[in-house]
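Lab notebook, design round three. We kept the backbone fixed and only want residue identities now. Task for the bench partner: fill in a sequence for the structure below.
Input C-alpha cells:
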C-alpha cells in the first residue's frame, strides 16, 4: 500500500525531501527537512520511496510493519527534541511547536487545550482517559521550557472520566484542571484566555500577550513522546464519523500512521453508508472537503462522511463566521447543492486585522437579523450560515 507524505503539513514553507526514488526507508526515518519556518517529516512505515515531487513523497510500505521506530537524535535539549521530531499544532493549526515554545512567559500560564469542542471528535479525550500521565509530563516540559509558573488543563465538566484520570496523576500544586463552557468554540485560544485569565485579547492578538501559551492535547502528547521516548511525529489520532458503517456517532482510531489513505481508514470503520455526500477532513465546523485518496497528515483530526447534499436550485446568500465556515467553504456547499450564490456577508463581529478577518468575541455571537436582511436585499432567496449560533 502507498503512503503519501505532503511536504507541507504545517504553517510555513514546504519541506525539502532528503530521500530519493528507490531508497529503502525505515519507520521514524527523516524523509524531508524543514526549510525556514516548518517542521521535519518522517516516514511512518518501513518501505521504498516510489515518488518524490514538489508536493509530496510517496512510499510503498512493506507488508509487515514494526510498531517501534528509529528514534530522533539523542539530545538533552527538549526544544531541540521537539524540533527534530517535527511537532506542529495537531489541533489543526499546524504551527511549528518548537517556534511557539521559544518564547518565555515567566510566571505565566501553560494551558493544555482539551476542549474537544468540535462535535463528534473524541480522540483527545480518549487519549487523556488512557494516558493522563503523559499529558502531565508534556505539560511539565512546556512549563519548564517557557518558565510558566502555572499549568492548566482546560476541558469541559462533562468529560468526567478524563477528569478523574487526570486528578489521579496530578502531583503538583502548580497544575490544575479548569472547566470551559460547553459551547462552540470553547477551544478557541481567545475564549480560553478570556475564561481563565480574564483577559479579552483583541482580534489578532496571541495568548502570549496574556502571558500564556496554549497547546492542544495531541501536541502535548507528541512533546512528551519526543522528549521522553525520542519519537518523531509519525502517528496521528483520528476520529472517523458520519455516514460510515461502524462509526456513525464517531469512532476513535489511535496512532494511525501518517500518510495512511483516508479511504482505507473509512474501510476499517466499516465503509461508507450509501448514499453519502462528501468526506470532510477535520471537525464539522472547520473541516475541509477531502478526497478518498488524501492521506492522514499531522493535522488531520477527523474523517467525517456527510449525508448527501439536499438539492436546491434557489439563489443563495452566504453568511460567513470566522470560527466556523467562511466564504470558500460555504460556496463549495452551495455548489454541491446545485444552488447559485448571489450575495455574501460576514458576521458583523468579523473585523479585518492585517488583511485577515477575525472574530471580535468568539462564541458571544450576535443576532444576524440585519445581515440576513442585507442578503435578502441583494436577491438571496435562501441563506446558508457558517455561524455557530443564531
Ligand atoms: S461572533 Fe460571529 S464570527 Fe464570532 S463566532 Fe460568533 S458567529 Fe462566528
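Proposed sequence:
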Amino acid at each position: 500500500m502507498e503512503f503519501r507524505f505532503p511536504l507541507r503539513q504545517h504553517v510555513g514553507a514546504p519541506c525539502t525531501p532528503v530521500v530519493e526514488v528507490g531508497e529503502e526507508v525505515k519507520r521514524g526515518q527523516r524523509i524531508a527537512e524543514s526549510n525556514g519556518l516548518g517542521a521535519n517529516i518522517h516516514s511512518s512505515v518501513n518501505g521504498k520511496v516510489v515518488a518524490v515531487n514538489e508536493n509530496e513523497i510517496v512510499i510503498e510500505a512493506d507488508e509487515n510493519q514494526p510498531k517501534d521506530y528509529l528514534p530522533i537524535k539523542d539530545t538533552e535539549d527538549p526544544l531541540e527534541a521537539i524540533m527534530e521530531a517535527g511537532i506542529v499544532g495537531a489541533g489543526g493549526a499546524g504551527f511549528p511547536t518548537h517556534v511557539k515554545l521559544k518564547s518565555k512567559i515567566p510566571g505565566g500560564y501553560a494551558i493544555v487545550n482539551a476542549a474537544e469542542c468540535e462535535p463528534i471528535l473524541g480522540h483527545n479525550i480518549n487519549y487523556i482517559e488512557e494516558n493522563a500521565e503523559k499529558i502531565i509530563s508534556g505539560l511539565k516540559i512546556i512549563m519548564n521550557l517557557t518558565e510558566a509558573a502555572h499549568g492548566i488543563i482546560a476541558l469541559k465538566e462533562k468529560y468526567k472520566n478524563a477528569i478523574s484520570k487526570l486528578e489521579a496523576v496530578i502531583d503538583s500544586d502548580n497544575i490544575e484542571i479548569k472547566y470551559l463552557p460547553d459551547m462552540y468554540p470553547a477551544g478557541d485560544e481567545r475564549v480560553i484566555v478570556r475564561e481563565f485569565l480574564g483577559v479579552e485579547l483583541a482580534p489578532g492578538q496571541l495568548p502570549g500577550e496574556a502571558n500564556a501559551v496554549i497547546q492542544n492535547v495531541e501536541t502535548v502528547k507528541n512533546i512528551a513522546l519526543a522528549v521522553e521516548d525520542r519519537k518523531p511525529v509519525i502517528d496521528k489520532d483520528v476520529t472517523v464519523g458520519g455516514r460510515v458503517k461502524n462509526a456513525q456517532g464517531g469512532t476513535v482510531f489511535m496512532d494511525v500512521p501518517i500518510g495512511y489513505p483516508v479511504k482505507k481508514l473509512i474501510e476499517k470503520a466499516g465503509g461508507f453508508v450509501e448514499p453519502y455526500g462528501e468526506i470532510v477532513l477535520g471537525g464539522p465546523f472547520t473541516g475541509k472537503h477531502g478526497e478518498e485518496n488524501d492521506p492522514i497528515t499531522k493535522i488531520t483530526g477527523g474523517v467525517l462522511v456527510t449525508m448527501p447534499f439536499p438539492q436546491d436550485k434557489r439563489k443563495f446568500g452566504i453568511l460567513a463566521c470566522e470560527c466556523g465556515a467562511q466564504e470558500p467553504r460555504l460556496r463549495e456547499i452551495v455548489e454541491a447543492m446545485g444552488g447559485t450564490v448571489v450575495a455574501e456577508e460576514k458576521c458583523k463581529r468579523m473585523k479585518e486585522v492585517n488583511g485577515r478577518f477575525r472574530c471580535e468575541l468568539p462564541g458571544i455571537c450576535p443576532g444576524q437579523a440585519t445581515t440576513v436582511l442585507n442578503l435578502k436585499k441583494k436577491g438571496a432567496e435562501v441563506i446558508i450560515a457558517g455561524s455557530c449560533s443564531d
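Keep this in mind before ordering anything: The chain has a mean pLDDT of 95.
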